[in-house]
Amino acid sequence: MKRDKSIALFEKAKNYFPGGVNSPVRAFRSVGGTPLFIEKGKGSHIWDADGNEFIDYCGSWGPLILGHANNNVVNAIKKTVENGSSFGAPTALENDLAELILSNNKYIQKIRFVSSGTEAVMSAIRLARGFTKRNKILKFEGCYHGHSDSLLVKAGSGLVTFGNTSSAGVPESFVNETIVVSLDNEQAVKKAFADFKDQIACIIIEPIPANNGLLLQRKEFLQFLRNICTENKTLLLFDEVISGFRIGFTGAAGYYDIQPDIITYGKIIGGGLPVGMYGSSVEIMSNISPEGNVYQAGTLSGNPVAMSAGIAQLTECLKPNFYSELESKTQFLIAQIFSNLKSNISNLKIFSIGSIFWIAFTNAEHIRNAESIDADSMKHFRVLHKELLDRGIYLGPSGYEVGFVCEAHTQEDLIKTAKAFGEALEIAMV
Known about the structure:
Strand content: 15-25%
CATH class of the largest domain: Alpha Beta
CATH superfamily of the largest domain: Type I PLP-dependent aspartate aminotransferase-like (Major domain)
Order of helices and strands: HEEEHHEHEEEHEHEHEHEEHHHEEHEEH
Number of helices: 13
Number of domains: 2
Radius of gyration: 21 Å
Mean pLDDT: 94
């Protein structure tokens, strides 16, 4: 595989950006080698600067559920941008996308558009604090909620802990408002509420944790969180930046049929363009400025280009059997991967839900929390990633990241991918 142009571009980028990238995971540090500079994408395929072609299972980290450069999305963007890209003023497209979402999602009544998933979560946390008039939040080790200060906190050594900052530049005072416990641990949550009675504004959780492996939770645990929040007048915040509109139009809330108090969504609502959103009941959302006293604003919030792309994409997602067909493709891919293995690899699992999958090198039947991931197993993914690239298959460059099947993936793509996996795993597991 030729890498000359990507290597040259990366060397040049190092002069401009820290580590040569504008987001850390792109640097390929966990898989080795030089990051590929992508030049174009169409359907399920991408091409790098050297002309190498790949079947893509990253999909811009999930939001491209229709694939790259979907014709309907592209046409909507072109038509809209010809009339202007941003006004900092309301447009009818905001109403149209909001109506499309709210009329098909019973778990939210009012929404606010923002420009990223991180901004959506940051704003939702502020809303929860403003509504409850409490300061502390409870999060789970292994769930990622963007890079705002209150949420860049990892677990400490105790059952219930204020934890430690996972980034320089985050004041200890911020960390001390964030309680961190392990996923799938009801006792730890109960102890947190006992230790900090009437102080917790919200529990925030990825109901389908997919930023640190695919840590599928028991419905009983999620229902427990709903119940304990209700009992303590604490809000339950579902961070569905990844799972929202990906496993179903109503995301994890609909999949588990659990009503959270606030939900956040990401770039999937804008066809992959920079956009996010948070939503809740009329009562809670009435606290947002200018109606209420919780301030949140954004010049590009609801910008017309993202709105039109979102309308085009989500309209496609509402087609009959859209999500069941995506899940069938995902299950077909997984079955084909295992059928292509020449030897019995006992410590290999592929966990999945809907069109999301995660390759784990483990003997465990379930991995429900971050502590259960064997860090040493990532040495297998490092080899797997390289071997798959050599065979024209692109995964996100980290063994902790999940993969995504999109509508554009064909049966031919899936069969070719499974064959490549079979060959690559034989090498990776040596």
